[in-house]
Write a structure and sequence with these properties.
2 copies of one chain form a homodimer. With 504 residues, the first copy, chain A, is an alpha+beta fold. Chain A has 4 domains: 127 residues, Uridine Diphospho-n-acetylenolpyruvylglucosamine Reductase, domain 2 (2-Layer Sandwich); 119 residues, Uridine Diphospho-n-acetylenolpyruvylglucosamine Reductase, domain 3 (2-Layer Sandwich); 116 residues, Alpha-Beta Plaits; 116 residues, Alpha-Beta Plaits. Helix content of chain A is 35%, strand content 21%. The first copy, chain A, has a 7-stranded antiparallel sheet with strand order 18-15-17-16-20-21-19, with helices on both faces. Chain A has a 5-stranded antiparallel sheet with strand order 8-9-13-11-12. A 4-stranded mixed sheet of chain A has the order 3-5-7-6. In chain A, helix 13 packs antiparallel against helix 14. The longest helix of chain A is centred in the C-terminal third of the chain and has 20 residues. The radius of gyration of chain A is 23 Å and the shape is globular. Chain A starts with a helix and ends with a strand.
Chain lengths: 504, 504
C-alpha cells in the first residue's frame, strides 16, 4: 500500500501542479514530542469495517483523494475513510484508535480554510456526513437537536419553515456542516448582530479520544453545572473530541429585511461610519466592507458600477419588524445624508438584493483574476482600528510590491486580507509570506487576533506565540494532553509541533 | 492558633444558633483522593504579608469571621485573608501556595448562593475587593476593561454615563463583583433577552494555581485562536484560576422601557403565556414569574394587591426605542386581551415600576415570614416545561406537607424553588432535603439542569451525577487536575469529594 500511495501521489502532483500534495506522514519519519502514530494495517481496516459496515469504510485511492483536501487547497492523503452512522460507532472507532494508536481526523464537508480537517499525519478520516439527521425542532423552546453532518443551509431552511431562525451563515453554508461549523466556530456576515456559531451551540454530545461519550451544556438557556465543556469543544478544531450531537439555539425569524449599498470616496470615512452606525443604536444584521481592489474585481456584476474614485463599499442590512426597520432606516439616512463623499441607495427589490450579495460573495473567487494563488487571512481587530489595519495593508502592498485586497465583516472588525501571488514566482511567494507575517504582527499590535472565524489549523500555528503567551499555550496543550494523551485525534493542529511516525 | 479557633467557633455557635459553623478543615482529618493541605503557619503568613503589604493580610478573628460565609449562610473560618492589589501579587501568592500546598479560596463579595467562596478546607481567602478599578471604557468598540473587584452596579452606572449598557443583573448587583459574577456565571432577570454573565465576558486574564498568568479570549467580537479558555474560567467557581482582569462586552443603552404586570387565575395559562409571548416575536427584557405563595407574601407591598384567586403573576418589561416598544406593546395587548382569566396593566410611571420591582425583589427575604430557614434552589427547565415543574413542586408540597414557593425567570425556564423549613424541626428538615432531592430528579427528567445561575458549589455537588454521566464528570475532574495538580485552588467545590488535611 505504501508503494501504491507514492505512485498515486506522484500522479496527483502531475495532475494538480498548483497544489501541494503530501503523503500520509505515517510513512515519513518526523520527530515528535508526543507519540508514535501507527499506520492502518489490514487488520485495523477490517475492524473499522466491522464497526461501520464494509461499504462505509474505504481505502480506494479515488475515495482517499476526495477526503484529502479542504478549502486551503493542500492535499494530504489519508490511509482510510470511515463513515459512521451513530455515536456508538464513533465511540468504537475511537476505542480502536486508542488501542492501536492511529490518527483519526474528523471531517464535516472539508470547507475549512486553515487545514483543520486535513489528515496531515495520515490515519483515518472520520467523515461525519452520514450523521445528518435533524433529530428535533423544538418550536416552543426554540431549540434544534441535530447530528453533526447536517448541512448548515438545510438546518436554516428547516427551522425557517416553522418561523424560526438559525443565524450562523458562513460563506460555505450551502455545503458546510453544522458539526464542522461548531468545530471551527464559523462566523459569517450576520455575526455583527447575531454572533457566531459558538453563540448558537447550547450543548452537545462528543466522543473523546478514549471512546468515552460525554455531554456538555444544557437544553436550557441557562446552565452552570460544572465546567463549560460546550465551549471547550466548540472551536477546538476537532482536536479534543468528535461532536456527535448538537443542541442549537434558534431565534424567531425576522419578519422583514432591508438592504443598502453605501459608497464612499474616502476609506477613512467608510470605516469611521461603521463605528458611528453601531454607536447610534442602529444594529445592522450585516455590515460588510470591500476596498477599491475588491470593488474593481466584482464591479462588472453590478448593474450600476460604483463611480470612479470610490474607495470603499459597505453592504448593510437591517432586519426585524417592518416598523423597526423603517425607524432605523430613517436614522441611517440622517447619518449618511450629511456627507458629499458618501452616496447610498436601498435595494428596491429582491433582484437587487441578490445582485449586491452576488457581488459580495464573488470577491473571493474573483480575486483569482488578479493572481493564480492567494494567501487568505481573516484577522480581526477592534472595529475602531479597522482604518489602521486597512492603511497598513495598503502600505504593505506598496512596500512589498504585492497585490492585497481587503474585504469582510467590518461590523465586527473581522477583515479578510487576501494577499494575491503567483506561487511559480518564488520571490513573489516569499514577499507574500512576508506580508502575511507582518500583517499578523501589526494585527496583534492593534489588540486584534490572528483569526476571527477560520481557526488556526495548520496555517497559523507557527504564529500562535504572537498572540498568546507561553503559559497560555502551555495550558492549552496540557488540556489537549489530558484529553488526548496519545495525541491520536487530529494531531498536529493548532499548536506548533511535529508528529512522529512509525508502525508498531 | 488551633485552640483559639476552637474557642472562637464555639462562641460563634452560641451567637448564631441557626448557622452551621465549621472550623478550618485543615484541623480535621478528612480523607481525600487528591492532596494534603497544609495550614498557614506564621512563616507563610509572613511571606504573604511581604507580598501584599502587612496591612493587607490578616489573621484577626474578627476579620476571619467577615470572610467566613456567603449567601448560603454556612460559616467556614479561613486561617487568613489577603487583599492583593495587582495580578503580580496574586501570582506571587499562588506560587507560595503551590510551594507550601495551602488552600487558596478566591472571593468577590461573598454573595454566592452555593458556598463557592467558602474556605471549607481552611487556608487563605483571597479577597479581590482591592482590585476594583474600571481600567477603561472603550466607547467606540463597546468594551469595558475591569478588575475583578468592581461592583456590578458601579460598572453598569459607569457605562450608562456614556450611553452604554452592561446587561447582567443578578439580584445582588449592588454588592456583588464582576469577577465573582464571572466565576459563578451569574444570571438575572434580563437574561431572557440579554443572556447571562458568560455572554458578556469577551476575554480575561487569570492566574493559574501555579502562579502563571494566562490570557483568554480577545478584545474583538470574534476570535478563534486556540481553545476557548474564557468560558473555561467563567463558571468554574474559582476552581481553575483566579480572574484578575475582564474584558466586558457592552451594548448601546436601550432608549426606553415599559413595564407590565400580568395576573392570571390559571397557573397553566400563565406559564403557557410565556412560550406564546416569546414565539410571537415579542422579546421582553424581563419575564419574571411568581406563584400564589410568592404573591401572598409580597402582596402588601403592592398598592393594588392581586385579586383573590390569582394563581400566578408575570412581571414583563420591554426595552428598546420608543417606537419598537409601542409596536410590541400593541402585540402584547392583543395576546393578553383574549382571556378572561388574565388581567394586566402597564406601570404608568417610575414609581409604579419601582413598586413592582420592590415586590419582585422582596420575595426572597419575605419568604422567611413563612419559616425561619429555606432550601433555595435555582433549577432550570426548557421553558415549555415550566408548568410540569411548577405542578410537581405543588405535588411535593402536598405529599411532603412542606411549604414551597416558586418564582423567578420564567422567560428562560430558570425557576427559583424555595423549600421553607424550620431546621429545629428535624423531621421537617428531612422532608425539606427529600423535597430538594426529588426536585432535582424531576428537573433532570424534564431535560433541565440542577442550576441555572447559582452554580454547584458545595450544596449541589452530591447531585452532579444526576445530570452528568460518569465520563463527563471524569473529564471535568481531569481538567481540574491538570490545571491544579495539588488541588490548592478552592478545593472541595463542584465535585463530590473530600479533602485530606494535615500540616507538613
Amino acid at each position: 500500500m505504501v508503494f501504491d500511495l507514492y505512485i498515486y501521489a506522484s500522479s496527483l502532483l502531475l495532475k494538480f501542479p498548483g497544489k501541494d500534495v503530501h503523503l500520509p506522514q505515517t510513512f515519513k519519519n518526523i520527530s515528535s514530542s508526543h507519540s508514535i502514530m501507527t499506520s492502518l494495517n489490514s487488520n485495523i481496516i477490517k475492524k473499522i469495517s466491522a464497526i461501520v459496515g464494509k461499504e462505509y469504510c474505504t481505502t480506494r485511492m479515488a475515495d482517499l483523494h476526495c477526503y484529502s483536501y479542504d478549502g486551503k487547497g493542500i492535499i494530504y492523503l489519508p490511509e482510510a475513510v470511515a463513515f459512521p452512522r451513530t455515536t456508538e460507532e464513533v465511540s468504537e472507532i475511537m476505542k480502536l484508535a486508542s488501542l492501536h494508536r492511529f490518527a483519526v481526523v474528523p471531517r464535516g464537508a472539508g470547507t475549512g480554510m486553515t487545514g483543520g480537517s486535513l489528515p496531515i499525519a495520515g490515519g483515518l478520516v472520520m467523515a461525519m456526513t452520514r450523521m445528518n439527521s435533524i433529530v428535533e425542532i423544538d418550536h416552543r423552546n426554540q431549540v434544534a437537536v441535530v447530528e453533526p453532518g447536517v448541512i448548515t443551509i438545510d438546518l436554516q431552511k428547516a427551522v425557517q419553515a416553522v418561523g424560526l431562525f438559525y443565524p450562523p451563515d458562513p460563506a460555505s453554508l450551502k455545503f458546510c456542516t453544522v458539526g464542522g461549523n461548531a468545530a471551527e466556530c464559523a462566523g459569517g456576515p450576520s455575526a455583527v448582530k447575531y454572533g457566531v456559531t459558538k453563540d448558537y451551540i447550547m450543548g452537545l454530545e462528543a466522543v473523546l479520544p478514549s471512546g468515552e461519550i460525554v455531554t456538555a451544556g444544557t437544553r436550557t438557556e441557562k446552565g452552570v453545572t460544572g465546567y463549560d465543556l460546550t465551549r471547550l469543544f466548540v472551536g477546538s478544531e476537532g482536536t479534543l473530541g468528535i461532536i456527535t450531537k448538537l443542541y442549537c439555539r434558534l431565534l424567531p425569524l425576522p419578519e422583514s429585511k432591508a438592504t443598502f449599498l453605501v459608497l464612499s470616496k474616502s476609506l477613512d470615512k467608510a470605516t469611521e461610519l461603521v463605528s458611528t452606525i453601531l454607536n447610534r443604536g442602529i444594529v445592522p444584521s450585516t455590515l460588510e466592507y470591500m476596498d477599491r481592489t475588491a470593488i474593481r474585481i466584482v464591479s462588472d456584476l453590478l448593474s450600476e458600477p460604483p463611480a470612479k474614485g470610490t474607495e470603499a463599499l459597505l453592504l448593510l442590512e437591517l432586519d426585524g419588524t417592518q416598523k423597526s426597520i423603517d425607524e432605523q432606516t430613517v436614522r441611517l439616512r440622517q447619518l449618511l445624508a450629511d456627507d458629499d463623499d458618501i452616496s447610498f441607495r436601498q435595494a428596491k427589490n429582491e433582484a437587487e438584493v441578490k445582485e449586491l450579495w452576488l457581488a459580495r460573495r464573488s470577491i473571493s473567487p474573483a480575486a483569482f483574476k488578479l493572481k493564480p494563488h492567494k494567501i487568505s487571512e481573516d484577522v480581526a481587530v477592534p472595529r475602531s482600528r479597522i482604518p489602521e489595519l486597512v492603511r497598513f495593508t495598503e502600505k504593505l502592498s506598496q512596500e512589498l510590491d504585492i497585490t492585497i485586497l481587503t474585504f469582510g465583516h467590518a461590523g465586527d472588525g473581522n477583515i479578510h486580507v487576501n494577499i494575491m501571488i503567483d506561487k511559480a514566482n518564488a520571490n513573489e511567494l516569499e514577499r507574500g509570506e512576508k506580508a502575511k507575517e507582518l500583517l499578523f504582527v501589526h494585527t496583534i499590535s492593534l489588540e486584534g487576533t490572528l483569526s476571527g472565524e477560520h481557526g488556526i489549523g495548520i496555517t497559523k500555528s507557527a504564529y500562535l506565540g504572537l498572540e498568546l503567551n507561553e503559559a497560555t499555550i502551555k495550558l492549552m496543550k496540557s488540556i489537549k494532553s489530558v484529553m488526548d494523551p496519545h495525541n491520536i485525534l487530529n494531531p498536529g493542529k493548532i499548536f506548533p509541533e511535529t508528529i512522529e511516525s512509525g508502525d508498531k
